[in-house]
Amino acid sequence: MTSIRKILGFSTTMAATLALVAACGTSAGENAQDSDDGKVHLSVVSLIPGSEKAAFKAFDDQVAAFEKAHPDVDVTPQEYEWKATTFAAQLAGGTLPTVFEVPFTDAQSLIQNRQIADITTEAKKLPYAGSFNPDVLAEMTDPQGNIYALPDLAYGSGLQYNRELFAAAGLDPDKPPTTWQEVRTDAKAIADKTGAAGFAMMGKSNTGGWNLATLTYALGGRIESTDASGATTATVNNPATKQALQMLHSMRWDDNSMGSDFLLDWSGMNQAFAAGKVGMYISGSDVYSALKQTNNIDPKTYGLTTLPMSDSPDAGLLGGGTLAAVKATATPKEKQAAVAWIDFHYLSKYTDQQRATDDAQTQAANKQPVGVPQLPILDRETLTTYESWISDYVDVPLTQMKGFTGGVFDQKLTPEPAVNTQEVYGAMDSVVQTVMTDQGADVDALLTQANTDVQKAIDKSAKS
Amino acid sequence: MSTIPQSKPQSQSQSQSQSSSPPLTPRPRRRSPVTWVRGGGLSTLVFLLPLLLAFGTFSWYPIGRAVVMSVQQTNLVTAPVFVGLDNFRDVLSDPLLWTAVRNTAWFALLALVIGYPLPLALAVLMSEARRLKGFFSALAYLPVVVPPVVAVLLWKFFYDASETGIFNDILGHVGLGPFPWLQSATTAMPSLVLEATWAGAGGTVIIYLAALTGVSPELYDAAEVDGAGLWRKVWNVALPQLRGIMLVTLILQVIGTAQVFLEPYLFTGGGPANSTLTVLLLIYNYAFANSSGGDYGAATALSLMLAVTLALLSALYLRLTRSWSTS
């Protein structure tokens, strides 16, 4: 009898506790109400955590300027780095700020899952609404033409190189490689003479796949192909990717010019490069901002040139970008304030000279990078005009990036693979890692397996 | 509800009160909320409440939610869809699952071979050093005090595979290496086990040391009289006495290593080429690796399967070792 009583008592207590917890716990989420003081409270992304104090100061100055122009809005900055692994959790947990940034590749699934707000009305009111680069805007528009986010940066991949390591290896820093064969010989020279990694590939957290996809594109191949009916097939097992892997294999095992750490991700690679341990690597043309703000790179060492393209007519430049989106739970007032902020902070400088010079002045005063090479969000003329407006404040070593700025518009800009991009890259990570760490790696078998894995990732996204 | 029997009839109680022993039956009283409060029931509840709330919020509720999510397809943002056992089927047909299980078993085996005898040996040695025992205990426990993430990042630096990496440099002086450590599929897992052993051995050493103090010195004396050296004393006296503790630490280690996440996640992210992908890291990848919304259904399904497997393993283990344990 007593034991039954004990069990009953225990279960009742547990049930009561759970009920109590459930009652107060479940809707911890947004009560999207405007606050009582009449102001609209807007949280926005600021910079990558760990960035330099001066960078944060520059950002705060921008916030102050915006609040002065919009006295009814109170902006709260929030440090943020987009990472494939943490973004989904932040989104689900509701800890993202109201205005946040994601890469182009995520826009369509966010739209499908109704996780970002429809800002068509507010966006159309912007003075330059009709001038967006249509390829860019298409990434964040739904089939009905509603706009769900605004682009704030477009980049093309480039070959980053360390000018000091080039000089130490007896190479001319103003004559970076223009073919992949030259990349290979230069990498060997750097490795032999300086001991640093001549050419490095990223390896983990989907960045290995991203680098491999970039290489594939530059050699004329593609990772995914979508036919007229909209069905997507994995094409990882193509001659260009095979050629890329064989080149990497030779560089790693015959030349020993790829260093000794093959498990770097985007920020790890930046760190290694800024520390002078990497001679060349592939990343976006805008990465100098992160290198300066987060890794405190010495500007003298930085060089940027275009990725060598093969002679194939399909050789393309993998491009991408970042967009600014607004949380789906934002109120109409918050959406208005959000688009006003996006306009002020990210976009208005391209069409308003005063904004451009103010923005550049603030950044330069705080010793932040001004004038990092980018691709046009609006159109090429607008970008050129913008660059002429800020030319007095440019503090990035643009002459060291001539290779890129002079050559990128001759390259065929190609968007990233469209379907389930991050998971596709993730499936390709282990291909890169295997080639880098196993001398006896069978490239054909790896590619066949990778093709199956990528097809699974594509099918999974089609199913959900 | 049973009632307390009434006290014995008058005559008997009188004779009883003449003797010195107190009445054996308690004073009858009705059980009511008032008596419960007076009896200290309210304060019991008040003391229990924080515990219940904490466990309820952070332990039982998430477990309940996980069980529910394992039969749904959900990304925590759009409404969940009931899918029955589909998640379990998808997980079981994922080739990466068997890779993860194999790797986890390999990690557990290596940890057993390297990390299980080591604390025992250290504890036995330390218990012989009477004067410096305290100092050695502190030294052994120091790695446990270092925060796990700090320890891993430190070792990641030591494991630099170039010739100038710290370990390779030291080993190079005695003519060994350079080793690829984390950069090769064959050496990555043992490297992880090495660090995990370094980080965890101290706690177990302290436990064994405490247990060893409970070994009666007369047993050692008796063994010495029979001509036993140090090795025999350890093997025939100390170890059998520690049997109970050793059984417990063994099952704890197996359960702990089956859930290893920190080392693979921070050292290699599961690489190179999924050679350090463990079951828990796979669960993490299911849930969080896809930035467009994770597959929480698959993640919770796999977590459930892991929990059930470990529970069955423990039950089996306790059953089999019942005859060996000291309790």
Short description:
The complex is a heterodimer of chains A (464) and B (327). Chain A has 18 helices and 11 strands. Chain A has 464 residues and is of the alpha/beta class.
**What is the terminal-to-terminal distance of chain A?**
52 Å
Q: What's the oligomerization state?
A: heterodimer
- CATH superfamily of the largest domain in chain A, by name, is Periplasmic binding protein-like II
What integer is the average pLDDT of chain B?
86
Please report the total strand number of chain B as a whole number.
2
Query: Quick one: which chains have the greatest interface?
Result: A-B, 51 and 40 residues
Structural class of chain B, please?
mainly alpha
CATH class of the domain at 106-275 in chain B: Mainly Alpha
- CATH H-level superfamily of the domain at 106-275 in chain B: MetI-like
Approximate shape of chain B: flat
Helix content of chain B: 55-70%
Counted by DSSP, the helix tally of chain A is: 18
Instruction: Kindly identify the CATH topology of the domain at 106-275 in chain B.
Output: MetI-like fold
- Mind telling me the C-alpha Rg of chain A? 24 Å
Largest sheet report of chain A? 7 strands, mixed
Looking at this protein, list some descriptive labels.
heterodimer; A: 464 residues; alpha/beta; D-Maltodextrin-Binding Protein, domain 2; B: 327 residues; mainly alpha; MetI-like fold; 69% helix; disordered N terminus
Structure description:
The complex is a heterodimer of chains A (464) and B (327). With 464 residues, chain A is an alpha/beta fold. Chain A folds into two domains: 40-153 and 322-389, D-Maltodextrin-Binding Protein, domain 2 (3-Layer(aba) Sandwich); 156-319 and 396-463, Periplasmic binding protein-like II (D-Maltodextrin-Binding Protein, domain 2). Chain A is built from 18 helices and eleven strands. In chain A, the strands form three sheets. In chain A, strands 3, 4, 5, 8, 9, 10 and 11 form a seven-stranded mixed β-sheet that branches. A two-stranded parallel sheet of chain A has the order 1-2. Chain A has a two-stranded antiparallel ribbon with strand order 6-7. In chain A, helix 2 links the parallel strand 1 and strand 2. Chain A is globular, with a radius of gyration of 24 Å. In chain A, 50% of the residues are buried. The model of chain A is unreliable at 23-34 (pLDDT under 50). The longest helix of chain B is centred in the first third of the chain and has 29 residues, at 41-69. Chain B has 327 residues and is an all-alpha fold. In chain B, strands 1-2 form a two-stranded antiparallel ribbon. In chain B, 69% of the residues lie in helices and 1% in strands. Chain B has a domain at 106-275: Orthogonal Bundle (MetI-like fold), CATH 1.10.3720.10. Chain B has helices at 10-18, 33-38, 41-69, 86-92, 95-115, 117-128, 133-145, 148-158, 166-173, 185-213, 217-225, 230-258, 262-268, 279-288, 296-320, and strands at residues 72-73, 81-82. Chain B starts with 9 loop residues before the first helix and ends in a 7-residue tail after the last helix. Classes of the chains: A alpha/beta (464), B mainly alpha (327). The interface between A and B is large, with 51 and 40 residues.
